[in-house]
Structure formats: structure tokens, C-alpha cells
């Protein structure tokens, strides 16, 4: 991302209002990756994503995994593969903790950060440059995701439903996206919302429960690195 591209990005963000995102549920993504999924991107965030694609020349197509909002919490250890029984345990944990997730308050997004990361977990960074969104009088209720976007997120979440668990298992067991994928050196720019002091309390319960029921299966990223990706910037 060049200097001119950064200026374009800054001009896009500074015209946008602060916004919010609502936690939805814990979800095990492809390759067994544990995430906290959100209800959907707000209209403000969807507009930012759209304008980035329109205004920054040569930007690559968006990674499918960034089209629904989430915070990646950790990864399976290298070489670890989930069994169907273990996938069922994770499905149960996610279901049992959903009321706690839904009880969390919305996360306010007053700024976004351009991060030049040194590894994909964002635990190592070369640069973090925050850009403030302007304040207005709106509330979280004014920033609900559009219905069609919510349906898209619903479809993603449904992959990990109890009824489709055996069908989804090959996705959970697929190679890649283990610990070394996230922690080996890889330099790339991205636009994120850093959670910072707004850490949902339910995350600690999720990590503790998974560690107790599947001891040694997962590594967890540092709390300070937790974020929600808005758009890759390569």
C-alpha cells in the first residue's frame, strides 16, 4: 500500500461516523479456527469496504473469510486434527455459551487502524496507524446490519449447525491455518478494528471451557492482538 493509497483510505474513513458491532456467537471456522462471530457489518463498515474497492487502484479481491465479521481467537496446534466427537464438543460449547455472547453489549468503533503486521495473528506488528471516525448522535440501534447481509452471515453460521456437523467436518479437518500459519513471519497491510479495552467477558469463558474439554488442542492469541478485520489492503 503506497502513500497515495493511504491518503485515499484516510479520506474515506474521515467522512464516516463512528459505528458499532454486536457479538453473535462463538463459531468454529474452516480448519478448526475458533472465532467470535458478530451479527454483521454495520452499514457504515459495509460502505467503507465498498469505497476501498472502488477508490484504491489495483487492490486484490477480498478474502472470503473477511466478508463476515469475526475475531479470530486462536488456532489448532500444528498437526492437530479434530475428530467428529471433538467437533461435537465444540458445537455444544458454542451453543451453551451463546446466551452469554448475546448478553454482551455492542462494541463501539470510534476509529479503525491500518496495521502493517509481521504475522497473521497481529501479535507482532511493524506499524499501527489509527484513523478516527467522526462522532454523531446515532446509537447502536441505528447501525444494525442490512437484512441481506445478516442472511449471508446466517448462511455461514449454519455450516456449523448440529444437523450439518458431519457434512462440515472435512472443512474443520482441512490442512492449514494452524499455529505456524498465524505466527510465522508474514508482512502485509490490513484495516482492522482493534478491540482494546472492550474485550467481551464471554471470551475468557470460552477459552477456559475449550481448554478444559479439549486440553492441549488449541493455542490462543494474545488479548492485546484481538481485532476484527475490515478489509485486507494488498
Explain what this protein looks like in three dimensions.
- This protein has 234 residues and is an alpha+beta fold.
- The protein has one domain (3-232).
- Helix content is 35%, strand content 24%.
- The chain has 7 helices and 11 strands.
- Strand 7 (111-117) and strand 8 (125-132) form a beta hairpin.
- The chain starts with a helix and ends with a strand.
- The relative contact order is 0.25.
Range of strand content:
15-25%
Integer-rounded radius of gyration? 18 Å
Note the quaternary state here. Answer: single chain
Low-confidence stretches: none
Our count of helices gives 7
**Average residue pLDDT:** 96
User: What is the global morphology?
Assistant: globular
- Count of the separate structural domains: 1
Structural class: alpha+beta
Could you tell me how far the N terminus lies from the C terminus, measured between alpha carbons in angstroms? 6 Å
- What is the succession of H and E elements? HEEEHEEHEEEHHHEHEE
Task: Enumerate the strands of the largest sheet in spatial order, edge to edge or round the barrel.
Answer: 8-7-9-11
Assign a percent range to the helix content. Answer: 25-40%
Largest sheet: 4 strands, antiparallel
User: Tally of extended strands?
Assistant: 11
Amino acid at each position: 500500500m503506497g502513500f497515495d493509497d493511504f491518503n485515499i483510505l484516510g479520506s474515506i474513513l474521515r467522512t464516516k461516523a463512528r459505528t458499532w458491532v454486536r457479538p453473535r456467537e462463538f463459531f468454529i471456522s474452516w480448519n478448526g479456527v475458533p472465532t467470535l462471530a458478530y451479527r454483521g457489518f454495520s452499514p457504515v463498515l459495509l460502505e467503507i469496504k465498498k469505497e476501498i474497492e472502488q477508490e484504491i487502484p489495483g487492490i486484490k479481491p477480498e478474502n472470503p473469510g473477511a466478508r463476515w465479521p469475526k475475531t479470530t481467537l486462536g488456532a489448532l496446534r500444528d498437526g492437530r486434527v479434530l475428530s467428529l466427537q471433538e467437533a461435537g464438543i465444540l458445537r455444544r460449547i458454542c451453543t451453551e455459551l451463546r446466551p452469554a455472547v448475546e448478553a454482551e453489549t455492542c462494541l463501539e468503533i470510534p476509529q479503525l487502524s491500518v496495521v502493517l503486521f509481521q504475522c497473521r495473528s497481529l501479535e507482532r506488528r511493524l506499524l499501527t496507524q489509527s484513523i478516527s471516525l467522526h462522532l454523531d448522535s446515532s446509537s447502536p440501534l441505528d447501525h444494525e446490519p442490512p437484512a441481506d447481509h445478516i442472511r449471508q452471515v446466517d448462511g455461514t453460521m449454519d455450516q456449523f449447525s448440529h444437523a450439518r456437523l458431519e457434512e462440515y467436518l472435512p472443512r474443520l479437518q482441512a490442512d492449514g491455518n494452524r499455529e505456524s500459519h498465524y505466527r510465522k513471519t508474514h508482512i502485509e497491510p490490513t484495516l482492522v478494528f482493534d478491540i482494546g479495552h472492550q474485550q467481551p467477558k464471554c471470551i475468557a469463558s470460552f477459552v477456559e471451557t475449550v481448554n478444559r474439554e479439549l486440553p492441549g488442542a488449541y493455542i490462543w492469541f494474545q488479548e492485546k492482538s484481538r481485532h476484527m478485520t475490515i478489509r485486507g489492503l494488498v
